[in-house]
User: Which sequence fits this backbone?
């Protein structure tokens, strides 16, 4: 039976927030991180926060963006979690309110089946401060997971989701196994399981204890 595992990317598969690493290049890490924190805690509309943060990246060369994204640190246990889930019969994907510059590389390194994220707009190789894509809104992940479930013929009982912030809530609504990984309180309230240890390998222990997911 087909099974689906969906991971958030920033601060879940990757150790940190992609946009914070990019903002640091411009000396704006503190300002951007403050907006990110408000959005992940559910105090600020995700779409508005994304627009505000990306606007601060205007002028950053795209080549430098790609260099930074290819050097992002993976979360401890991320590779083990993805490999272990695939061995257990899962399709493993990531949804990110961040950017494909980062998730595309992460997907290649981790062996993900697909990655979904937003696109930073550039003009002749220089970021314009604009962004587009299908992961820009608070409910984007929920809408995308239902499309994937229909495509793969997977129901919520065979769906696992892992995330850390408020914009993961919408996908949590469509999975019976919901793991809050070192998460904000608002997401922990919606979770069936929580992981506080900085090790994504703990996901496999949870999967093996949940009957619908442990069956092949």
Assistant:
């Amino acid at each position: 039976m087909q099974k689906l595992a969906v991971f958030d990317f920033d601060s879940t598969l990757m150790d940190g927030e992609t946009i914070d690493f990019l903002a640091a290049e411009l000396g704006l890490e503190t300002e951007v991180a403050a907006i990110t924190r408000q959005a992940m805690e559910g105090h600020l509309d995700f779409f508005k926060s994304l627009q505000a943060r990306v606007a601060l990246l205007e002028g950053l060369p795209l080549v430098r963006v790609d260099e930074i994204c290819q050097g992002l640190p993976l979360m401890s246990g991320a590779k083990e979690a993805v490999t272990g889930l695939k061995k257990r019969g899962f399709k493993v994907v990531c949804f990110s309110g961040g950017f494909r510059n980062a998730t595309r590389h992460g997907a290649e390194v981790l062996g993900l089946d697909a990655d979904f994220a937003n696109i930073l707009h550039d003009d002749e190789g220089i970021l314009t401060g604009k962004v587009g894509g299908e992961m820009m809104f608070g409910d984007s992940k929920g809408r995308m997971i239902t499309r994937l479930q229909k495509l793969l013929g997977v129901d919520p009982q065979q769906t696992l989701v892992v995330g850390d912030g408020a914009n993961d809530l919408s996908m949590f609504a469509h999975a019976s196994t919901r793991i809050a990984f070192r998460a904000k309180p608002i997401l922990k309230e919606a979770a069936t399981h929580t992981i506080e240890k900085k090790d994504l390998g703990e996901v496999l222990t949870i999967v093996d204890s949940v009957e619908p997911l442990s069956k092949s």
In short: The first strand starts at residue 3 and ends at 8. Strands lie at 3-8, 90-99, 114-123, 126-133, 159-163, 177-181, 193-195. The chain has one domain: 3-214. Residues 3-214 form a domain with the Rossmann fold fold (CATH 3.40.50.1000).
